[in-house]
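sorry for the late reply, my laptop died twice this morning and i had to redo everyting from scratch. anyway the thing you sent over, i finally got around to it. pasting the sequence first so we're on the same page, its 694 residues, then the predicted structure underneath. double check i copied it right bc i was rushing
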Amino acid sequence: MQTRVGTLTICFVTGVMALSLAACGGGGGGGGGGNPTTVQITNKVTSVVGGTQYVFNASTYHNHGNPQGVTWTITPASGEGTLSSAVNSGASSSVTYTAPASTCTNCVTVTATSVGNPSSTDSDTFSIAGSSISISTTSLPGGLQGIPYGAALQAIGGTPPYTWTVSSGSLPAGLGITVNNANITGQTITAITGTPTATGTAQFTVHVSDSANPPGTMTQPLSITIGTQSTADNGELSGQYAFEINAFGQGGGVLHAEVGSFTADGNGNVTAGVVDFNDPNGAQTLTVSGGNYGVGPDHRGTANIMFSNGLVRTIAFALGSLNNQNVATVGRLIQFDYTTATGGQVGSGAMYLQQPAAFSLSSINGPYAFQLIGQGPSSTVLGPRVAEMGSATADGAGNLNPGVFDLNTGGTMTNTAFAAKLSTDPVNTATVGRLTLQVTSGGSGNSVVYIVSANHALIMTTDPDSTSPLLSGEILAQSSAGYSNASLSGKAVFYLEGQGQTAGDSVATLGLVSSDGNGNLTLDRQDKNDSGANKTTTNQTGITYSVQANGRVTIAGANNSPILYLVNASPASTAFIMDTSPSVAAGYVEQQAAAPFALSGNYFFGVPPPAALASFVASGVATSTGNGTVNFTVDVSSLLGLAVDQTSSGTGLNFSADGVSTDSVSDVIYFISPTQAVVINTMETSPNVYVLQQ
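ok and here's the structure:
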């Protein structure tokens, strides 16, 4: 480096400072004598973006101030770019480097050599980086005042990690840019998060820079609109509701589950409740200390549920199945807590209006089937997916015997006879319908149960997830204590979710079967999306089934030999279903109504608990006038944040003779009845089953 202050020149030559009143190196004679020429590359880099050009500059310092030029070379001489357009002008020199399209690490060296005797050299070794950086986030979802907001900022190309700032304008009040460097996906996530404190539209520009030297940069104008949570129909959520949520948590993708009860007063207030949680932090029972909610005119809403330990759970929901008091008896819900760019928890579930008259042991009487889904023991890493189905007979005094269950742990199947004991909770059974369950033979294990009605309950295991599977699900009353092959007849739609063939993705399957009541079954049609790979199967015959008296159904001749447990007998056959493959796909079977097939009216929908870490979960509403078009309004939670009020339309619905249709946005829709349908999308790589209900 050289700079002049008056007549004083300060020179840094190979790290040693020299002073002279004339020129650096003084007193040494002419030509090649005295101090040698020194060359320095003044704009060294750590990486150059592939397919671009970069101009290197060098300065030379020579005795008597008489530089003689620079020559430039590249190593290797071919394959990692070229040098061109070298220019020498006095003490300065430059050359243009053109990088190849490929990438490599510390693979190119450019050297500047001074022309002198003796000569001096300086080199720069650098990488060839990926394509230039660009911002892939071109729009952001809106939010609601007082409801947590989260939306990821995404860039591609360049050299990660990236640094984000707001270069002009401002974010909505209450929001900021947060970064998580230990995300459960192993990647850094930058997001706009917080809780909006005011309504309106904020206009701003984000700026991103990468870690190259010099850094790649880009800006993108964005906006966020914050609205007011509607409370137009708060009366639709009124009474005591049992609910369950199954989610992938924040630590290494381990599971989180919760089941409980809360009371809504019909005026936007959550007034009481009890909830059980289980995850790597251990099982705990918390009291609901308050909260608030809002229900909009389209039956969608959000709620903040506050607990005695200070935790606040935010959910988004869609309500339906209104009773004659215009109160929702069923709701689909998702976790809506994305506030720190951690990518979790991403969870979904359902809530049901409880019948307090059933809050006793005596109401649990007769045969029941159950299904629980979750993952195997794991406190730090993603364990194997696990599903369990079975049946047992309750005597009204808390005894469940005889019982049997089938367990699929990552593709390993077991079938076990068991007995269990239900016990009352001295404080909470009479108020919220909470019971505890202990397996007394055929294994071990503890669970908590919340009664919805005498025919329905929600269940979650409470043992430490480091040593036992963490599972949750539901219990349904069976309609018979003596099933037979004749109990399974007619046409039925089935739908399942499981782990996909690609790690981290899911598989979603819809199908239609015909059974004759004599042990013969035909797979009329099946549509499967496995990690984005789609396959349709039709008219598969040669399948047989056998129904045991307890409702257990075994199937032969079909892929992955699924097992069923019947709930209702024909002509309204309903069953739990689970395959025996490592995907551990599980779901439901429901009898299909007769033609005509058409969707018409207002529907609410949600998704089963996520089957894979990369899943996104959604709840919302859909409307159709029966003209072949369905309009969706959806709220979404995913690893990359939240989205409120997302709208889309599917056109071209035209149900075939088997009650199946596709639409313009790559959906496959199976008609179950005029009030129910199931949907999968063939474009998603981690697909869900969407369950539409009225």
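DSSP finds one helix and 52 strands in the chain.
thats about all i looked at so far, will dig more tmrw
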